[in-house]
């Protein structure tokens, strides 16, 4: 497929506020020599027409089924809420389309495994939007670890704020579904899941976990309506475990916004030194991260500047920049048969960790993962 422009249809676009509008459209526009956005499908033709008109897209499809069936579309991008992922992605794969699905891939491990198996059987490429894996700071961190900056990794500890699940939501219509654990879009599955994908990228698989999941705020205020809504999603996620390397792991996510933009503190301790990764929230997939390190006799952390080569040629804003990096890897995989983009198989590996955390929390005992995640081609951009 050298030189081919891949034609993309987007499912789920709300101008000015949705993830597709903020990240996917600017990312694809920045890669216009590689991708072309054909059009959009929403819950109704009127909604799709409004979105297409506001964003300058050439076509509004009457339904998701019509978009999937369009012969000109190569890639279906799925950016809707989690519960419809299974049906939409199955239909797209069944039509022979490649898929870029936002994370979480499915509402739980079983759905993710089903979609990964279906993509394999149909020979289509399934890519999942765990874009923190390709953030410049995470890519550079992975290279530094591989190069022995801190020696052998001894342990890692991460404390972060979830940015939501803090006792209130601004708009009931948009955010209330995040409060119900059954919808599969919780602090554990979204910010913790994205961060687990990044952690797994640089430190390897998780072998076993113990966990506590607590809902300390059983209600939340919908600010726009004044209603008090029930909450079943956890606002406290505590995980202790062991990586496949033998290094101990500790994670604590807390619901709500951070004070003083101090929303992520991630330490990696090694035989020769330490790393400190920080950010304004625990949503590592969508915030600017900073990287510091110290080794040997150094008494204080020093900033580790990410080389310009990791950033040049990409959108400057974090959200579209990271999404563009995933799309670029997807195009390379389609053209060259590589496996560099976060795949459905990688998504299953993260879903498997989350499922183990849930089992450990329910049982109160240490839980081993069912089997290790797949090996990854770590083909990073130099």
Automatic annotation (TrEMBL):
<dbReference type="InterPro" id="IPR000683">
    <property type="entry name" value="Gfo/Idh/MocA-like_OxRdtase_N"/>
</dbReference>
<feature type="domain" description="Gal80p-like C-terminal">
    <location>
        <begin position="136"/>
        <end position="279"/>
    </location>
</feature>
<dbReference type="InterPro" id="IPR055080">
    <property type="entry name" value="Gal80p-like_C"/>
</dbReference>
<dbReference type="InterPro" id="IPR051317">
    <property type="entry name" value="Gfo/Idh/MocA_oxidoreduct"/>
</dbReference>
<feature type="domain" description="Gfo/Idh/MocA-like oxidoreductase N-terminal">
    <location>
        <begin position="6"/>
        <end position="128"/>
    </location>
</feature>
<dbReference type="InterPro" id="IPR036291">
    <property type="entry name" value="NAD(P)-bd_dom_sf"/>
</dbReference>
<feature type="region of interest" description="Disordered">
    <location>
        <begin position="361"/>
        <end position="382"/>
    </location>
</feature>
<dbReference type="Pfam" id="PF01408">
    <property type="entry name" value="GFO_IDH_MocA"/>
</dbReference>
<dbReference type="Pfam" id="PF22685">
    <property type="entry name" value="Gal80p_C-like"/>
</dbReference>
<dbReference type="GO" id="GO:0000166">
    <property type="term" value="F:nucleotide binding"/>
</dbReference>
<protein>
    <submittedName>
        <fullName>Oxidoreductase domain protein</fullName>
    </submittedName>
</protein>
């Amino acid at each position: 497929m050298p030189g081919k422009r891949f034609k993309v249809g987007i499912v789920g676009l709300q101008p000015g506020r949705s993830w597709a509008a903020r990240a996917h459209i600017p990312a694809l526009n920045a890669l216009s020599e590689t991708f072309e956005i054909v059009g959009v499908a929403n819950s109704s033709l009127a909604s799709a027409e409004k979105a297409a008109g506001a964003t300058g897209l050439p076509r509004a499809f009457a339904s998701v089924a019509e978009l999937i069936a369009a012969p000109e579309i190569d890639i279906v991008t799925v950016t809707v809420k989690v519960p419809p992922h299974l049906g939409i992605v199955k239909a797209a794969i069944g039509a022979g389309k490649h898929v870029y699905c936002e994370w979480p891939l499915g509402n739980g491990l079983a759905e993710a495994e089903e979609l990964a198996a279906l993509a394999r059987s149909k020979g289509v490429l399934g890519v999942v939007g765990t874009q923190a894996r390709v953030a410049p700071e995470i890519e550079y961190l992975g290279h530094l670890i591989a190069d022995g900056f801190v020696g052998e990794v001894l342990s890692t500890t991460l404390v972060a704020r979830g940015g939501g699940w803090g006792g209130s939501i601004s708009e009931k219509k948009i955010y209330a579904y995040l409060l119900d654990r059954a919808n599969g879009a919780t602090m554990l599955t979204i910010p913790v899941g994205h961060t687990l994908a990044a952690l797994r990228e640089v430190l390897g698989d998780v072998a076993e976990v113990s966990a506590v999941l607590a809902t300390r705020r059983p209600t939340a205020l919908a600010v726009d309506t004044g209603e008090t809504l029930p909450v079943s999603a956890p606002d406290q996620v505590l995980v202790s475990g062991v990586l496949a390397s033998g290094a101990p792991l500790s994670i604590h996510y807390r619901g709500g916004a951070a004070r003083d933009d101090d929303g992520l503190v991630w330490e990696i301790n090694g035989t020769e030194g330490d790393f400190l990764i920080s950010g304004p929230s625990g949503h590592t997939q969508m915030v600017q991260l900073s990287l510091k390190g110290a080794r040997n006799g150094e008494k204080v952390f020093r900033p580790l500047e990410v080389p310009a080569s990791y950033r040049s040629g990409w959108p400057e804003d974090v959200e579209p920049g990271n999404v563009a990096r995933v799309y670029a890897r997807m195009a390379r995989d389609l053209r060259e048969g590589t496996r560099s983009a976060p795949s459905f198989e990688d998504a299953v590996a993260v879903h498997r960790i989350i499922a183990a955390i849930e089992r450990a929390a329910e049982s109160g005992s240490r839980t081993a993962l069912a089997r290790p995640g797949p090996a990854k081609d770590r083909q990073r951009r130099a």
